[in-house]
Amino acid sequence: MKFTFEDLVKVTDAVVLQCQNSSGLFTISTDSRNIDSNNVYLPLKGEKFDGHNFIKDALEKGARGYFTSDKNIKLGDAKFVLYVENTLEAYLKLALFYKEKIKPITIAITGSSGKTTTKEMMASVMAQDYKIHKSPLNHNNEVGLCQTMLSMPEDTEILILEMGMRGLGEIELLSKFSKPDIAVIANTGTAHIGRLGSEKNIAKAKCEISKYLHPEGLLIAHDTDLIRKTNEYKGKTLYVGLDSTDLKDIKLYSNSSEFSYKGHDYKLNVEGMHNIQNSLFVINAGLKVGISPEDIAKGLEQYKPIEKRWEVSDIAGYKIINDSYNSNPESLKAAVSTFISTQSGPKLLVLGDMLELGKNEKNYHKEIGEFLNGFDTQNVRLLTVGDLAKYIAKTYKGESVQFKENHDAAKYILENISAGTTMLFKASRSMKFEDIIKELDNQ
């Protein structure tokens, strides 16, 4: 998106501190390392950095002007300088200005788990009938929202936004500056409970997505008592769950799922009840924007899991299912349930620490071991990595081994696990389970 100088001032309510030359059109850059003469530098502040420290670098690389939230800053050799109280808010205002100029149908998606999968399924379905633009991976905070919206092609018809959060008020802010037409709450679990303190607060945070949802829009939410009690949206709401009378004829295979919903048949080339749940949000959103059930079915069948989300590969004689992008109690239970019930032959669960679970983190891990005991685990071995994951093994009644380091886990697998074994890798992202898989691949 290119802005005039007048746009920059008016949209952000900026005060002009300096103006020598304001002609031309400008794009926004928040990265001083990537600047050209058409850029306006917008310095952001974070917990450990302040973009204001790089204004000089941006000017030296050709930036025409810059924003600042420091009225006393030395202006330097800039063609223009614009003062705003908060540079992040200015960035959000500019992104919303562009979105409202393009006017795409905007779909916002959040959830304790499953939001990225739902976003990717949504994109696959919506692309059947519309020109779409979606959040790239990891672009689910305020900065990512702005980058996503400002990179949107002018012919975009549907904008699909993933919204994450680290605390109360964050999703409300994302909703305020995106003004969605359709909102999806995939679920509310215990992810980030260490920050928010309770599942009730997590539900409250997720339900913020509807604060600026269009009054005549649609909220599609996971059908739980907690979400029903927390939701304050007054417009049309669909509560979607696996116990729906519209959901029939479910068939789960080792690499696919089939089901009937509202009288139409669908297929996913990925297994698991949790993925069927995610697809129900997508089906209802597709119907809302006028996509036929046949095209919805085509889009769902074309969906492919992205990296580290139920990514299946054959490595070193093993079948590897890499679902290690992230982990929390709900997503882990869904993953191991799908894994045990759909995979044949000898199986190995490689489970790592689930992080950000607060003071009850040990108990959450112990609950996973107890959950596993509810299955027939005769052919299921457990390998844990990390100081917390060992508590899964403490309550698991089957065969298990525990390690602290990824390298030791990889070494054990290569020396003790027979070829033909199917393995599920699941842990919080910072456990870097991809390192174990790389060692197996390089053996």
List how many beta strands DSSP finds. Answer: 20
Strand content: 15-25%
Q: Which fold name fills CATH's third level, the topology of the largest domain?
A: UDP-N-acetylmuramoyl-L-alanine:D-glutamate ligase
Instruction: Strand order, main sheet: write it out.
Output: 7-8-6-9-10-11
Write down the domain tally.
3
Judging from the principal axes of the Cα atoms, what is the shape? globular
Structural class: alpha/beta
CATH class call of the largest domain? Alpha Beta
Provide the CATH architecture of the largest domain: 3-Layer(aba) Sandwich
Number of helical elements:
16
Percent helix range: 25-40%
Largest sheet: 6 strands, parallel
Q: What oligomeric assembly is this protein in?
A: single chain
Low-confidence stretches: none
Task: Walk me through what this model shows.
- A hairpin with a 2-residue loop joins β13 and β14 (264-268).
- 35% of the residues lie in helices and 21% in strands.
- The protein has 16 helices and 20 strands.
- It has helices at 5-12, 55-60, 87-102, 115-126, 142-150, 170-176, 193-196, 199-207, 225-230, 273-288, 293-302, 329-342, 361-372, 390-395, 406-416, 434-441, and strands spanning 15-19, 27-29, 39-41, 65-68, 80-83, 105-110, 132-134, 158-162, 182-185, 218-222, 236-240, 247-252, 257-261, 264-268, 311-315, 318-322, 347-352, 380-385, 400-403, 422-426.
- The two termini are 48 Å apart.
- The protein folds into three domains: 5-86, MurE/MurF, N-terminal domain (Udp-n-acetylmuramoylalanyl-d-glutamate--2,6- Diaminopimelate Ligase, Chain: A, domain 1), CATH 3.40.1390.10; 103-302, UDP-N-acetylmuramoyl-L-alanine:D-glutamate ligase; 311-441, Mur ligase, C-terminal domain (Protein-Tyrosine Phosphatase, Chain A, Alpha-Beta Complex), CATH 3.90.190.20.
- The longest helix is centred in the N-terminal third of the chain and has 16 residues, at 87-102.
- It has 443 residues and is α/β, with parallel strands linked by helices.
- α12 (329-342) packs parallel to α13 and α15 (406-416) crosses α16 (434-441).
- The strands form four sheets. The chain has a six-stranded parallel beta sheet with strand order 7-8-6-9-10-11, sandwiched between helices. It has a six-stranded mixed beta sheet with strand order 15-16-20-17-18-19, with helices on both faces. A five-stranded mixed beta sheet has the order 1-5-4-3-2.
- The mean pLDDT is 93.
- It is globular.
